[in-house]
Request: fold
Amino acid sequence: MQSQSQEVGPESPLDLHNPPFDPAIAAGEESLSMTSNVEDHDCDPPSDADEVDCVKCPVCKSTDECEHMLLGVDETFREVLGGVMFASFLNHWNDVTSNATNLDFDEHQAFQELLEEVRAISDFEREEDDSSLCSTSRCTFFYCRSGAAAESANDKWTSRRSPE
Reply:
């Protein structure tokens, strides 16, 4: 009877049943590759060779999340990235998807309908196409003229969804 030996190393095939050990996951922490937030959209200053079109707030020109950002979303993967409406939009979106019992439920259409509501209460909209090796995602950022306007828009949007 022959025993089989299996080489382990960078040249060996990936064993999907026994993934490599990740100490962060073992410690109950999220792996850095699994996290996503609006800070992922920061840009370094472009070099002469690069033409980088960063998403910038049309009011304060920040490439970070600012008080004017009403909502940032990844439309491709239907993820909420940040903004004043982050919690209210995410909670409502989670309610919509968890209560969808119809087999014909169109998640893309439902997400787009919510974005149309946000579009109607925002003053500005910026889009960014993010291409990586594995996929392309389309991110959209909605802004208001002031932080107070963003808070007010969020309050109005949230109050329309509150149970009576």
Notes: The beta strands are 69-74, 79-82, 124-131, 136-143. Confidence is low (pLDDT under 50) at residues 2-20, 22-26, 28-52. The two ends are 74 Å apart (CA to CA).
